Structure formats: C-alpha cells, structure tokens
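agent: user wants the full assembly modeled, not chains individually. Plan: 1) parse entity lines 2) check alphabet per entity 3) run joint structure prediction 4) return tokens. Steps 1-2 passed, two entities, 973 residues total. Proceeding.
--- entities ---
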Amino acid sequence: MIEYEAVIGLEVHVELSTESKIFCACPTAFGGAPNTHVCAICSGMPGTLPALNREVLRYAIRAGLATNCEITRDGKFDRKNYFYPDLPKAYQISQLYLPVCRNGRIEIGEGKNKKTIGIHEMHIEEDAGKLVHDPEGNCTLVDYNRCGIPLIEIVSKPDFRSADEVTDYLERLKTTLQYIGVSDCKMQEGSMRADINLSVRPVGREELGTRTEMKNMASLKAISRAIEAETKRQISRISAGKPIKQQTRRWDDDKGVSFSMRSKEDAHDYKYFPEPDLLPLRVSDGMIEEIRREIPELREARRARYIKELGLPEYDADILTSSFPLVRIFERTAGICGNAKEASNWIMTDLLKLLKDEQVAPEDMHFPEDSLGKIIRMTSEGVINRSVGRRVLTELFGSDTDPITYVKDNGLAMVSDQSVIETAVDRAIRENEKAVADYLCGNPKSLQFLIGQAMRHLRGKGDPQSVQKILFEHLEKRR
Amino acid sequence: MKDENILNMTALEVARAIRSGDITSPQATEAVLSAIEEKDGELNGYIRVFGDRAIARASEVQKQIERGALDYPLAGVPYAIKDNICTEGIPTTCGSKMLENFIPPYSATVVHDLERAGAVSVGKLNLDEFCMGSTSETSFFGPVKNPWDTTRVPGGSSGGAAASVAARMSFYAYGSDTGGSIRQPCSYCGVSGIKPTYGSVSRFGLIAYASSLDQIGPIGRDMLDCAAALNQIIGKDPADQTTIDTVPIDLSAASEFSGKGLRIGVPEDFFAEGIDPEVEAAVRKAVHVFSELGASVTSFRLPIARYAIPTYYIIACAEACSNLSRYDGIKYGYRSQNAKSLSDIYVMSRSEGFGLEVKRRIMLGNYVLSSGFYDAYYKKALQSKALIRKAFDEAFVKYDLILGPTAPSTAPRIGESLSDPLRMYLSDVYTVLPNIVGLPSASIPCGFDRNNMPVGLQMIGPYRSEQTMVGAACLFQRSTAYHLRFPEKRGEDA
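--- prediction returned ---
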C-alpha cells in the first residue's frame, strides 16, 4: 500500500489595525450599521481617487521585519480587475509584481520537531465589502463598510505536511502580529482569514500533485478539519485511479465536507496592470531602521527572558507570553508592584480566572493596565490585606475606577488600630465560649475559627498579623 | 454696457470691468446666458445650463467683490465646465446614457478651487462619451456643432468647451485632455487651450478615462486668459497623490515675453504624409513669425512619433477598460430593466448603457491586458513610452519649445469620422505624444483654410515649462490676430 503525504501552502489575509482605511479617511472599526463607514472614495464613486494611508506601508513593513522578510525598496501597486457586487470599483488595488515583503520565515514546532516555514511573499491590498443574503427579502444586500480596510496577504511556501503544522504556524503568526500591533487577528471577526492550497503525493516523491484551494477559512478548528477531510478525499480519489481536478472548493464546516466552487477553466483573468492613480512606493534604509526599532521583543525571546531573568516557572512564562495584552499587563503590573513573581502569581491565579469566568479574551479585556499593580502594591504595603485585594480586583474588573480611590471611598483599608482590634477580639471570645474552651484544650483549628470571627467583626479589614497576635495574647490570659 | 460688447471681451477684461464697477458679475452672466439661449439650440455645446442658479451665484460673488473680500484675477467671470468633472448635487453625465442620471455626492477639487476664486459656473459642457472620440459626436446628448460651420464637428472630446468659447457662449471653459481632447477642438474652433504638465492639476473628481494621461486644462479666447484660468486650479492636492507642486504663471512676465534667444524645434515628422497642405502652410507660416520675432528655429527628426498612436491607444484603452468597469448597474448609473440575474445586470446594463466607441475601446483594452497578450501589447507600449520620453529629453536639451500642427486637418464634416474610427484615431497623431509622457502642451489659432476653418499651432514644452509656453504664445498673439477672429466675423481678414 502506497503511503501518501499532504503538501500544503497557506495564503493568510490579515486586516491591519490602522485607524483609517487604506485609501480614504473612513474608520476601520469593526461592526457599525451597514454602509456607515463609507465615503465616495471607498464606495468607488466615479472620479474619486485613492490616497495611500502611509501607516499601512509602515505596518506591512513591520510585519515583514517580524517574520524575517526582505523589504522591497521600490514597490508599486497593481490593479486586479474582476466584477463582483462587493467590489465597487470592479478592481482591487493590490500588489502583483513588486510585493512589499519577500522571502521570510517562521519557526514552528518544539525540540526535535522544530521546522522552518518559508514565507514566499507578503503584499498589501484593500479588502472588499460583504454580501448579506436577506432570506426574508429574497434578495442580496451589500455592506461596503469593509471596503478599503487595509490587508496584508501572507503567502507561505508549500512547506506544511499536516493540519497540526498549519495550526501551529497560524497561532505563531497571530501571536507575532499581535505583538507588533499590526492586527488584532480575530478570526471570528474576519480580521484573519486563510486560504488553503493542498495536494497529496506518495511519500518520497519530489514533484507535486494537482492542488485544490479552499477559501476563507475562519477558525483554526475548521482549518484543521478541512485539511484532514481534503487530504482523505484526494488520497481516496488517487487510490481509486481518479484524477484530482484543479479547482477552488468551499468548506462546509457544519456538514464536514467541501464542495467544488469553480474549476481552473473558469478561473478569472485578472488583467493585472500597474495602478496609475498611486505613486511608486519608495522605502529608504532609514525608514526600515526606524520601523525595526518599533518592533518589541517577540514571544520566544521574551519567554526565555522571563524564565532566566525573572525566575518565572516555564509554565507561567508560557502563558504570560501567549498573548500581547497579557504581556503588557504583566510587565506593567510587575513594574508598579516591583515584584515580577508576585505579579505573575496574581495574573496566573486571579486574573486568568476572571477572564475565564467572564469568557473574555485577553485582547478584549477592559481593565486599566495600572490597576492590578496598584492592588498588589496596596497589599504589600499593608494598606489592604490579600483577601480584600482579591475582592477589589473582582469588583473592579471591567471598570475604569482607580483601585486606590476605590479602597479609600469604600473604607477598605486595613484596620491596625490596637483598640479596635481588641474590641473585635473581645467580642469574638465572648460570643464563642465553646471555641475558646476547645482551644484551651489544645484544638488549634479553633484558633483559626476565632480569627475568622474577629475578622468578621472587622469586616475583613483587620491586619491579619495583629489580629492573630492580640487574639493569642487574650486567649493565653485565660489559661 | 450692451451684451454684445461684454461678450466680445476676454475673461481678464471682464474681470477688470467688474472690479472697476463698469459692469457687474450678474450682468456678464446674463449676457452669457442669453448667448447660450440664442445659439446653443443649434450648437449643442451644453448638456446643462445653470440659469437662475448662475445668476444667484453671480450676485453673491458680486457682493463679495464689492466688500473687497474677493480679489482673484477672474472673480465674477462666468465660465463653463466639461460634464466629466463632478459637481456635488448636479448631474455629471460624461455624455453617456450610463450616467444620464448620476448625481455626484461630492465636487471635484477644481470645482472647490473655482468656488474659492469667485468663478461663476454657467453650465456643464457636452463631450464625446467618456471622452472617447475626437469629434464630440459620440455624446448620448447628440453631437456638438462647430460654430464656424455647423455642418462640421468642433473636435473632441472637449468639443462643447471649445465651441462655447468660440461662439461667445462662455468667457472661458475647462476641458480635459487625455490625448488631445483640449488642443484638437481648440484647433478646430479657433481658440486657445492648455494641456498642463501631468500632475499640475488635481484629477480628484474628474471621471477617469485613462488615469495616467488625463489632465484638466483651460480653454480661452487667448493665451493670457488660459494662463489666468489655469492658475486658479493648479497645486498639490492630498486627494490626488499624482499631483506636483506648481508655480503659478506670472501673467505680466508672460505679456512681456521676448522671442530673442528662444530655441524652437520643429519635428519634420509632423509634416509627413497625411497632413493637409493648407494646414502645413499655416503652421510653417506661424513658425516663421517666431523666427521673425527673434527665435532660432531648427528642424529636427523625431522618428519615435510613428509609435505615438499605437502606444497611446494601448495605454488609454487598457486603463479605460479598468476605469469603466465600475459602471456595472449595481450602485448608480444605468441598470437594464430586462436583467434577471447578476450576470444579466452586468452584461445588459453595460451593453445598453455604453455607446459604440466606448464599447470598442473597452474591448481593445481588455484584449491588450489579457493573459497571453499583455507582453505583446501593454508591455511593449510601456517600452515605447520610455523611448518617447528619452527622445523628448534629448530634444529639450536643444530646444525650449517644439512647434507643429495640432491636427493634420481642419474640422471634418459631421458623420465623416464615425464610419472610419481608424481615421479618427489618426487625427490625434500629434497631440497624443505629450500625454504619453506627461509634458505640457498648448494649441493656439494660427490661420484659416480656404473654407475659413481655423488651423491650430501646437506647442510642446519640457516639464513645468508653462511659463515659457504661455509667454511664447502671448508673444505670437501680440503679433498676430488669428485669435481675435470669431465665427460671426467670418470673411474678414486676420
């Protein structure tokens, strides 16, 4: 029996998170009522012209540098011509001949499974609108809000052999792009989409088989399932002596099967030619160096540093560096409280639990970056005790309120006034004669109970050490 | 002052008369509107005339002038603009059924410039459909007629603009020039016009024919008017990244320009086969005027000129087929009532909405860009463009200006060209060269043929040489009277 392997290449479209669109001043914000983020330019009105948002070029170069690409010094834009209702000019401004970046790479896998995936090229283009099928009106509507959102298309080399490699690559690409702040890479909102090119061949053979393309995959799970299903489909056809047709297929994730959309024969002739409305792109060494300096320390380097220099456990370092919002809050928190391990502990236990309970992704977290650091500092300075700290975190999570103000306004500061604590301890002893007797008989658990009671009278704000000390003294007097 | 006397003034004279209080902007506007009323029924130069709206605007401008709030050189003077330049809230048709009811939601940058300068628009001018034509016959709104002889065409595609200036239905006008669309109608109608250096004038709001060639420019009764009109619209525009910084033309320097030391080159290739002997005689005589005025005139060879027409039509049609793809019947413009599917909407709306010449050029453009043909046509055209640029760079080391005929003949009769598109394309043989490489170029009247039809002299200069070109043209017009003749005075000697 012949053993087959899949050969897979990816084209990943990533929406850049610039404030405004690529060729006009409309906002790029996701959502918004249909056709509200639209002007004469991005809706392709006659006579309008594109004016390049220079930030887009900078973002694309940043993405290229972070993935070890060569940056094209003299680039240009080209027109890709085709008719579709979501494309109001009937051409897409893209880059065919001189893409902004070329010949990059991303490392995937761990240990002896480490592998380099080549990036063939990365080019800049504008996104199209969205068609919305209105089942009630029995018609198709078009929303141009997405028209002109800047995209980079990252074309990999056909270096993948399995779905796992593909998802590993996508995870790493996503993390890198988030680290450098060029995209939020939210697959569910379509800001990261992948097309999969896949063929199979007998293991050991050099030449490639006929490939199919699956377009616009919008979740890692779907990608994984689609790759596995398509690999199986192709192998079973070849084994049965049937040919593979070069075609574009649509993956139906609900049904778990793909369907042919169009074959090579009806492929478009896009009639590319140089875009006459835009100037050639000149990229200087100075510009590249300036952008290179803007690139933060990336995940692998940061993870290693956390372990080595900050002494964090590997597991913690792994989690903390897994998304850039976590990195930012961790480093800010550590900076404010002056203790990286303490910051890490609070994030790993308390903050991540809150994110999980509220089902919020780190990038969607609404919480001032200073807040956690301030809370930890208040506990280490003895302003509040640890359990009040936890309570403050839970209560303030998702709000802009300053924790210091909150503690003050709500009278949460720790009570260390001797006489107040003594009153509370007296009352705990008076109201719990049995526990006192147990303690005196040698039951240490009773001490904890009595501390708890005293704390309750102090509404949780007692300085735990003082409470314990005073209670201990009072109990010993009774012997 | 009587309307007739007002109408015989140049735009700069009208502006001075308004400033000095001899006439008012509404008066000048009324005069133009009644000339349009009287003549345009026959000439068909306008697609849309702003009657009350123009008067209201003139009154408002007049008040500002009287307050001293407007001192632009052409403030208060009525003008007209080609109907491929977008005007917010006012239909902009490109002379096409496709855009018959298209109302732009914004105005072109030049329209804003003109509003700021206190110009008063009287209407929108007829043109070849999407500027595709050299006769102004392909308009969905009917052909424009030549004011000198209404059985003849006014040239194109800015035929409405040239005819309106020649017939005194406007003091000055703006057209657009992709391959001669300003200069060739100026030649046929006996008026002056400039195709500026590519990038001098913003194209934002100019409905594209061929983006790398299109440029808006002025048409006037003499070159000084053209220069004043051009000054109102030049400058870098963030909305059009192909624009360049441009220095305004100094009108007083232009009026004192001396021919001494001016080096003129005359490409003999422009007088090869196909040129009307009467046109050749008039142009040679005009060149002689320059040498009498102190210029040195040298003949030279420009063999690359033979590639002008194929290079131009390949580039222009390629860009046009892409630029015109947006007219798909989906968002605006004509949609076929018979369409039953998405593919029907595209095919039927475009088949019914575009005229014959537009469809011909869309097909040509698609052909030269198709995979398999791109290298043989489009790529070759780009190579040819590089050679043409090199030839001009070399010529402009030796010459300050290149002179020659604007068109090989005077205006043909209506209907003659439609049956033979290739012959019509060849009428652009001299004018397309400057567009291909972005050079400034002008046409000024330089004689008449035996049928009393005007002949044009084309001037081509190096990049940003408008000051020299306008100076030389003004010198010529101070020494000759061709530009002072107009259709009603036909028969009188220049």
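agent: reporting back. Residues 418-477 of chain A form a domain with the Arc Repressor Mutant, subunit A fold (CATH 1.10.10.410). Chain A touches chain B at residues 40, 43-52, 79, 81, 83, 85, 88-91, 142, 269, 271-273, 276-279 (CB under 8 Å).
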